[in-house]
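re: ur question from the group chat, yeah i did fold both. here u go
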Amino acid sequence: MESKREFDLILLGPTGYTGRLCAEHIVKNFPTGLKWALAGRSLQKVGDVAKELKNLNPDRVEPGTT
């Protein structure tokens, strides 16, 4: 059954220590078809983290940012 949600998972606070560890775990271990996003107070910082995560697993689509 196809989900009508835009994202399967939204990670809040990826710029902090624990949030970054969680984001790296998602990139390395979750299925590449996962629709996910990063959310935080500073869109610029969240975008920077998203770009860094792309280097860990180039096959994964870059997460959305909110």
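okk and heres the other one u asked abt
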Amino acid sequence: MRASLIQIGVYDGKGAESVEARRRRAASLVREAGEEGGADLVVLPELWTTGAFAYESFGTEAEPLEGPTYEVMAKAASDAGVWLHAGSIPERDPDGLLYNTSLVFSPSGELAASYRKIHRFGFDKGEAVLMGAGADLVTVRLPSTTLGLATCYDLRFPELFRRLVDADAEIFVIPAGWPERRRSHWTLLAQARAVENQSYVLACGTAGTHAGVPQAGHSIVVDPWGEVLAQAGPDEEVLTVDFDPSKVGATRDQFPVLKDRVL
């Protein structure tokens, strides 16, 4: 399997790219990853339309599940013939509530899954106050493996990933808008989730600055032994890596630690 993580840049300030322009550019990068790069799976980051820390934009840029980003990304997945985790959007539901919602499309452009982020960041401000919490565990079955979905701050909660393993997940796909000041945690936690669950981790972050918060970048792919297969730098980049999903089963057979779980 070949995966491409699109570490798109989202920048503040004068002359900043519009949301619509960034949608078009992201769609172009998805097509390039599939048509030219040969990717089977493409991943975008968390809240890349607005920026994960641009809280004041959540309400103004929120969209229905099947809104503008859905339409552009569905077509990009179909054009490229890839499984596309289109990162997350600020979703406004029919009752007017906001959620941090991920969208996954099949190679035919059909919506394969959506996931509302369960753990909201901010404590008593920002996302934690402005957005509702998801409640559903979500996996996506591909021909050769199963994806388990999580988003950014979810990475700090290992019990979620245990539940995803119990739901047959072998690859955790984690879009994020992770801040540079906690970049060491990003790498450490990605490797920890891979090792403790004997699963692949594909964690895709943003580059740039969101509402004055510099982003970590450094998207990362980790194998079931915790080895880093590839890692991006701090700037906008498309990180592409080839890996074998069957290594998950082989690792779990070779070192069957999960069979010794008590809780």
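fwiw on the second one: The chain has one domain: 2-259. The chain has seven helices and 15 strands. idk if thats what u expected
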